[in-house]
Structure formats: structure tokens, C-alpha cells
Specification:
With about 90 residues, the chain is mainly α. It has helices spanning about 15-40, 45, 60-85. It folds into two domains: about 1-55, no CATH class; about 55-93.
């Protein structure tokens, strides 16, 4: 704060301690706001994207989503059955 600005006209607004404090507050405040915005929200949960982002070219319909989730559940069920040593005999109703 002891450094003074050079000017052809004296005094300038940035030579007073209040002026310097206002200058730094106005320049640091946007950085803090951006940091709080980026790290303060769970963007993946809010927007609904996965780890790698939204990799689909178009949004899926409810029917497509149900189909995908059903397929994933079947894969998981087969994997668990294989780990337990029991194989699925046909599809269960």
C-alpha cells in the first residue's frame, strides 16, 4: 500500500488507502464469486451429466431411458449371478 501511482495531476483516487482497498476489492470479488460458483454446486447432479460429461448427441426419451436402464440392470444381474456361481436358466417373470 505505500507505493504511490505516478500521475501528471495530483492527487489521484488510487493514492489513498480507501481507493486502493476499493480497487483490490473490485478486482478480487469477481474471482471469489467465480470460484464459489464453480466449486459450490454439484454441477453433475444439477445438469445430470456423468463423469465424462454429456456424450450423447441428443437427449433420450423416457422410453429409451427405461430400455437402457433395464438393459443395464440385466447386465448387472447376470454379472452378480456369475460371481455367485449360479447361472440364470431362462428369464424370470
Amino acid at each position: 500500500m505505500p507505493t504511490r501511482t505516478t500521475s501528471l495531476r495530483e492527487p489521484t483516487a488510487l493514492n489513498t488507502p480507501g481507493g486502493k482497498a476499493a480497487f483490490y476489492i473490485c478486482h478480487v470479488l469477481p474471482e471469489w464469486l467465480a470460484t464459489l460458483t464453480l466449486f459450490g454446486f454439484n454441477v453433475r447432479k444439477t445438469i445430470g451429466t456423468g463423469f465424462a460429461g454429456d456424450w450423447r448427441q441428443k437427449d433420450e426419451t423416457e422410453k429409451e431411458k427405461e430400455k437402457r436402464l433395464k438393459k443395464e440392470a440385466e447386465k448387472l444381474e447376470k454379472k452378480l449371478a456369475k460371481q455367485n456361481g449360479t447361472e440364470l436358466i431362462g428369464k424370470e417373470v
